[in-house]
Amino acid sequence: MAHILVIDDQASMRSFISQMLKDKGYQVSTAGNGEEGLKLFNQDPESFDLVLADVNMPKIDGFEFLKEVKSNHPQTPVILVTGVNEDAANYVGKEYKADGVIEKPFKVEETLAEIEKVISGSR
Length: 123
Prior knowledge:
The chain has 123 residues and is α/β, with parallel strands linked by helices. It contains five helices and five strands.
């Protein structure tokens, strides 16, 4: 099953997303901010099938994380997770070639469908 890296500075959101994915059989790794997420990702970039990155995080935000990952590993799909205006996130996300945008609060089934679509499209 696919390995997903979940990066969110809110522990409750990180835990919720992680559990939702594990319940569907995904292998999940987590990080509490973009800097921690980037370190984890760079240890073994090939091991991750997808990254879910929150947009608003301390140290390195989701956009900066996306830019960094896509410049070195353009084949790795990244979905931005945002609680801000979806249009703004889509605009900036596309500028850095995000593979998707999930808006908070999200619906579990829609979120899982988006994740599955992105993962299956990247294989």
